[in-house]
Amino acid sequence: MNAFLKSDKKPTVKVIHLLRLELKHLEAFLALMTIQDNFGAQPEMPESADKLFHEAGKLRKYGLETKSIQSISKHNRLLKPKLFLQQLRFYEKKSTKKLFKKRKAYPAFKTNDFVKHPAVRLLPETCKQFLAARALSILDLLNQDIISDIRRLHQLRKTLKSILYILPFCKKDVKPAWLFLKTRRKLMKSVESKIGSLHDTDFFVSWMNKKHELIESTEEPALKRIKREWQHDIKTMKKNLQPLLPAVKQFALDLKDQSGDLVTAKMVSV
Question: What are the CA-CA distances from residue 216 to residues 27, 69, 212, 229 (Å)?
Answer without folding.
Answer: 42, 15, 9, 19
